[in-house]
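the four lines:
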Amino acid sequence: MAIEVVVPILGITVEKGKILRWLKKEGDPVQKGEPLFEVETEKVVTEVESPGTGILKKIFIPENLEVPVLTLVAVITKPGEELPEQYKAVPSPPAIGTVPAAPPPQAAAPSASLAPLKSSRAPQDVLILGAGPGGYVAAIRAAQLGIRVTLVEKGDLGGTCLNWGCIPTKSFLADVKLFRKIKSSEVFVNREALAIDWQKMTARKNRVVETLRHGVAVLLKSQKVNLVRGQGKFIGPHAVEVDGEGRKEIIRAEAMVVATGSRPSSLPQIPFDGKKILASDDIFLLTEPPKELVIIGGGVIGVEFAMIFNSLGTRVTLLEMLPQIISTEEPEVIQGLNRLLEKEGIRIFTQAKVLRALPLNGGVQVILQREGKEEKLSAEKVLMAVGRKPNTEALGLDKAGIQMNGSFIEVNSRLETSIPGIYAIGDVTGKMMLAHAASAQGIVAVENISGKNREIDYQKIPSCIYTFPEVASVGLKEDEARQKGYEVQVGKFPYRNSGKALAIGETEGFVKIIAEKELGQILGVHILGDRATDLIGECVLAMNLEGTIEDWGKVVKGHPTLSEILSEAALDWQGSAIHSPKK
Amino acid sequence: MNASNQQLVEFHKTMVKIRLFEQKIQDLYARGLVPGLAHLYVGEEAVAAGVCANLRREDYITSTHRGHGHVIAKGAEIKYMMAELFGKKTGYCKGKGGSMHIADVEIGILGANGIAGGGIPLAVGAGLSAKMRKTDQVAACFFGDGSSNNGTFHEGLNFASVHRLPVIFVCENNLYGISVSQKQHQAIQDVSIRSVAYNMPGVTVDGNDVFAVYEAAGKAVQRARVGEGPTLLECKTYRWRGHHEGDPNQGRRYRTLEEIQEWMKKCPIARLEEKLVKREIITKAKIKKIWEEIEKEIEGAVAFANESPFPEPQDMYEDVLVS
Amino acid sequence: MPQDSNRLVKTTRIRAVPAARRKAREKNIDLTETRGTGPNGVILVRDVENFQSLQAGTPLFPKADKVFVSPLARRLADSCHLPLAEISGTGSHGKIILADVIQAAGAAKTISSFPGKRLESFGQTLPMSRVKKVTAKRMAQSAFTAPHIYFFADVLLDPLFHLRHEILPEFERRYQVRISFNDFFIKATALTIREFPLLNAKVQGEEIVVLPEINIGVAVAMEEGLMVPALPQADQLGLGEIAQMRDDLIGRARSGKLKMEEIERGTFTISSLAQFDILFFTAILNPPQSGILSVGQTTDRLFLKEGQVGTEKVARFGLSVDHRIIDGAMAAAFLQTLKKKLEHPLLAFMQL
Amino acid sequence: MREITYAQAINEALAYNLEKDPAVFLMGEDIGKYGGIFQVTAGLLDKFGPERVIDTPISEAAFTGAAVGAAMTGMRPIVEIMFIDFTTACMDMIVNQMAKIHYMFGGRGKVPMVLRTNIGAGRGAAAQHSQSFHAFFMHIPGLIVVAPSSPYDAKGLMNTAIRDDNPVVFIEHKKLYAVKGEVPEESYTLPFGKAEIKREGKDITLVATSELVNRSLRVAEEMAQEGIDVEIVDPRTLRPLDQETILQSVRKTGRLIVADEGPVTCGVTAEISARVAEQAVEYLEAPILRVGSPDTPVPFSPPLEKIYIPDEDDVRDAIRKMQAYL
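prediction for all of em together
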């Protein structure tokens, strides 16, 4: 009759123990009462004595693995006795935080009936990979829901958004906007003298980023989120190995959330070099703005940087392969923006295929193809903004058996991957590569983990572009709506007709609302104009609260505000805008 | 007074029973079958055996948190003890007391006690009532060196002494109050000298020598029976395990492996067996048989405990008051 | 009743002593309408009693407009003639939202979507009762926007009858499905479209887009309305696959288990009323598609051959097309080609 | 009927039981020759001798614990703790031993004993001789807590307490000892867990304990002049509490005031209020009000002590507050 060795209950508060060291090997003879292995519980190391005399036949739990108390760790048999059948296939150790594995056969009956005493040992826990806007928000929400959270991050808290993306660029744009305002205003004198100090601009940006990063850290701490520094890597569906400062540790959790985000990608033939061929991240390391900048990629990132540098006096050329820049947005809006960009003096080449980039006396020469002809462009630096690729390679996702969709992670509308209990959010899902989308996904994911059943509706997630003026939109574009078979009607209103816009000297742009005829359902809103990114909030709210466009028209706005423009557009939908001439 | 050979064999059986019972609890506790707390008596068997051998069925004892040995020696049935430790309805306390509260008033066990020194005044009261009822019952009161610093010890000795009550105060001095060594918790070496302050005899014996304990306790019980009042009996001994199961490495946070092993060499049972064999009172073979029989008995108790049902939820509300 | 009245009490922000609340509930009195005479105007039991005597015992029911509903949801409910009172809201504080009305209307007969495979589109899961609305809307839209022209031709089906009869047992053994005439029609149509790409086109703004795949939609009539699941790239499918796919799609259409994409991918539609006693009919385009084929009932037609009177099986096929894309000549040619294929099936399906 | 004091009434009960039952005996500080600090045991030593009326050392833990041990082994001890303030010196014996033994031994063995002590300020005895924390014991399962408010109740309840097989904490009141009332010569018992309606009324239920019963009764009579009809309920046993009688009264009047000399925080008044709130809130036509001592130790200086003690004025104020809801 084999004697089972379990991780003993070492006091009433102890729930799990980490096997530090086996003092005997398989096959060693052991005496009842002599130390068998060392187990660490709550920072105390205890020698566990052999419960019987015989041969240490089999060890199930290797060293440095933490398991719940009562987990079967080894079996002792009589000399010469074979390993009994029931131990031939012993289940892998249960993850910490789950109910202990089925108790040892002999003990089964009584301890099973003691189960109620132990069931309390099933705290739900989640491990989140990546502390970007998706990961850290998910962590906080999870903590609020009473889930134990471990958050793994190899870089800075806040991810790309906070450190290399949304926030730093907004800091820059704020300075630049003010600069432009003054420059272009006739009420200020000796404006010619006015200059902007790149160093100071960067310093302010850094302060902003610092403050926010600190803020995130404080929030996480207050929620008792367990933050682990290092690169996480799946070693199984419920186990992740974290490699930080040379110290590896294995963390187990019932639920996992992958939120490792993305990084800039480059054209294969033109790799980043960090000096001449820059990625968006490199921009922030520049000591001064370049004289000439060629931006490859007319997406949101490309256009925003084009705006910044152009305003700082850089000669900017924007190269886009497709017929229009920012092809994701409402064509009408983009045409408007395109016009303004060119008015600014930004050169925009669409349907431009970039072939090569060669170093040329201290600068770069970009060779591209347009309308069949080859052209050469020389620039001091090149910013490559042709898109971003997900950080999914280093995660050992195959170990977890997660189904991929190209280099992105396949998820359903609950953000769950092909492996139950493993979720993915943010850029790695390739759904909507936006910080606020990631955060929204994060919240949906952890609420699903907590037992709720939530789905995400990308239809009502806005997108914002920080140009001068700004672009913002939510919902369907006009022709999308028509293609889906809606009978649509459009309401429009120009900034020019708004008292406030005029007063603040921001008369460029318009609002376009697309709504379905029969129910007056608001299908999409597209704004080009000052503060568009703030105004879109109202539209998102209207859509989420399922207001009809007629309701919207009835809303009374403060005067003078830019928000009036939205109500006017809504009224225009019914052909009754107040401040538009009769049609 | 000298113990008869028959008695000596009884001592042995009692001590082996305590030893094996405790070792079984050790294993069951580790396996999560015995919930709560378990303070084991391993190493101190001679005290319980030696003292209780002088008591009659109707005499009283009060015990401590480390009480399994005392109640076994006083005649408690281990299967009901085991059931109690499992938290089963068939236990001595219907599963509502557990390790620290095993009691059987019928055979004079006024209960193990979870409060250090808590049992002392109770024993005094039992002595008082024996005196008032004019029986010649006595009350033996077990407590540790730690409790001897508690008010109840001094108040109890004082009260018993004033009223010449038939009480035997048995101090099991195992050198530690939980993790604090005697040196750190009292300025004396022999607790027995405190008897002077209460004008009663005080004796110190080797608590791992069942003969010594038996004889000293015998004298004390004798005095008590004939109305000469209480005695303070100190037995120097040692617990092999930690304060409780879960006190890591048998309490090596506050005592050394060497010290533990030193005391294990003085195993009270081994010493007794040696004598018994030397005096040819019993053979090695017989001894082995005794161990095996008791082992069986304990397995039986475990089986009984296993098969026994847990209390019903409504049982929780029973016995709050005597109805 | 208590349920209801709890809501009544909960939704009112008023100060009343507990006993007053109890009385109000028992007497079904809305506390908002009583005046409190206790300290700081707290409503006392006597206030409720006074109010009740004023009311002369007429019980006061919660007003209808207490229903909490989103504007959109209210509109849809009205247009579907669904009493809001019967719809339970899943929005915050039990607010009735669009999804609830759709749910109620669809009586749970919703099209379930597969996790991960969902198309992000409005009404994500499309309940049957909405089908009518959608069809109606689309058809109306189509009738106005797309100028239709119609063509008819009688197709001799005896050869197909024989062919089908011949292959039926073997076919069924191999594909576990009974081949139907529709399957032949689908295949033949798809093959014909290959020769007439414009019948696989749609108008987009000012230009005509010829769609890359030939996905043949099969109109399935149900009391809730018309569903048109489509077989993808039917021109490249074998009859076996077509039969299986058609069987599966129609089955799931009936049980309301279709995916959005299966409906939306259609590029050309076949609508067969052969099982009804409809001789022939003109079908309305299923936008943005440019063509739809209607199949009438198969009838026996008398004919005279070498002085012998015989019968042959004939069905009348109709073709409706979007005149903006397809002119009469092409439509005629298409129908002619299709007729030929069906009347000489062996020839037609040789390339399988 | 003849009138005797509260102290004499208790004394009669003690004497009667010492007479009848050899298992009964008394222990306590200065209960013998001195007759007890409040003369409750006066004369018993001469009658029953030092064997059964034992002057103990000043050693509460020892003699209370000894009483528990004696009770477990066939006796029926009655101990006196001179002031409730001193029970803290033997709280372990009361809470962990006396109260729990029967339960934790699974019903084996019982502890038939009475622990007499007294509450109440008003004698300038200050912070350690005037407290009224009898609520402590309401908190302890396994105890019976009795607080008689009249000589009649005191005798009847004491008889019951001595004969009961459970440990009883018998709460007397310093201000009551000298109070006279009608008490029958013969022995009689009053049931535990049975409240008494000391005055019927329809407007307000006033649950009062111990000495506050008498203070409340006086105020109730005044109020009757103004047409406010107060019903006064005296629980008599605090544990087990006769909540049915209290609830019935509240259901009738719809208003509740609770008066007890202990601090209101976590006090007797808190417990009774909570139970009514839980089980009859829908009958309440006004907020529950409590009368009790403030959250300070008992002050010494007479004017302060006067303010400290919940008295007629406090009860009157409460009823006036409640008036607004009538």
